[in-house]
Structure formats: structure tokens, C-alpha cells
Amino acid sequence: MGQIITQVDAFTNQPFAGNPAAVCVLPTPRDDAWMQNVAHEMNLSETAFLVRQDNGFNLRWFTPTVEVPLCGHATLASAHVLWSEAHLLPDEVARFHTKSGVLIAKRQGEWIELDFPVNHSQVRVAPPEFSEALGIPYKSVFQNSLGYLVEVESEDLVRQMQPNFQQLKTLPVSSVIVTSATHPDSKYDFISRFFAPGLGINEDPVTGAAHCCLAPFWRDCLGKDEFLAYQASSRGGVVKLRYRGSDRVFLAGQAVTVMRGELTVT
Questions:
Q1: Predicted confidence (pLDDT) per residue in 180-238, tens digit
Q2: Of 41, 46, 110, 151, which residue is the catalytic one?
Q3: Does 46 qualify as catalytic in the annotation?
Q4: Residue 162 DSSP SS3
């Protein structure tokens, strides 16, 4: 039998929404070139590769062009696959050994909660061409290990913006998070979008790693510790957040399996 690949829509409870990720639970480790080729073939924002080891699973994430050090939605998808395909018992904790340290996933009813490292942002002065590349005016710009975090005036601007991806590629960072508070009558606390043309992803549908930056930012802005956030890509997705000022942030989302296939060329 060939290698099984499961495609999961993460940060959603509906198929064909959220952020799709491919998940490969490997019987033995594979070399980097093979994993990159599979990720390129899948052509999703991330493909996750897991290998069982002592006290958990080794987990790595690849975009169609590069390996990344942290990915929220593909971790959520991986945890979903481990439970739904009986690699773990329903009450077992999923423990992942990654380039960003040990990450924990727990089932909480219909939701999966991820324990991730927080990512703080510092105020920065953006390049002169930045506003033109975004296509909208902005209030402030910050920088973290992912790239820029940009606050804009309104939810409508976030939803309507159409960046110039070729210009974004020329920036000294690989990705840009754009965020704003929501309308007063919204059930969400804040909204965001995530652009990473430098990583081969013009727009990521729902980005867990970005919310590791957004949680401390909005805690400072709103003075609260728990949030319901919406990422306003064309697919859309919902993230629950808990952040109380420590070095860890808790992200929760739902996931749906949409496809399961066999890689016949190994």
C-alpha cells in the first residue's frame, strides 16, 4: 500500500471552508527533498509530515516551496487526523516535537485546542512603498518573527483590500498580517488577513501562527484575555484564543476531513 494522505479543512466545521492542509503520517522518516516534492504536488498552503517517536510525534510543515518553522492550521489538521484515524485514543493528548519546540493539542468537545508559543511584535517604520503595496492606508506597523503586523482603521478595509503581491514580495519580510477591530455588533473581537507571497502563498485562508502575534496585540488593545477571531479570506475561518500574558497562547479550532488518498509513487 502507498502512503496515505489526508486532506483536512482546519479552523472550520464546514467542508470547503477554513484552511486546507494535507497530512502524511509516515511509517519512517523521509528526506527533505521528498517531503518538499509531495508538498509541491499537493499545492496547498501547508503539508504536514508526522513520524511517531518516543512521547509523541515529530512534526514538520512544508509549503509548496519551503519548510516553515511553525504552522497552526496544519498542526490542528494533524491532531484531527491522529484522533480520527485512530493513531491516538480519543482521550489522549497529541504531543508534537517541532522546530518551534513541543506543541500540545487537546480535544475539547468539538474543538481542538493548541498550546503554542506567543509571538510579540515591536513598532516599526514601514518602507515608503508599503502603503501602495497593501493598497489601503494603515494606522500602525509592527514587526515580529513572521513579518509585519499592520493595524488598519476598519473591518471593511480588511475585507476589501486587494494587495499588490508582486510589490509585497519586494519587502524585507516574508509575510504581512493585516488586522482591525470589528464592528460593534459583530460576534468577533477582531478580524485579520494574512499574506505571504514570499513563502509562495499570496493569501493564507486561516493562519494559526499569525494569531500567536495577534493575541498579545489585541490583549494590549482591548484589555481582555479571551477572544473570538475571524480570518476574512475568501474561505474564512474562526479561531478561539486564550492569552493571559505568559509565553504561551492557546488557539482553538475545529476541523473536517474532506479527502483521503494514496500516494502511489514513493
A1: 999 999 999 999 999 999 888 899 999 999 999 999 999 999 999 999 999 999 999 99
A2: 46
A3: yes
A4: coil
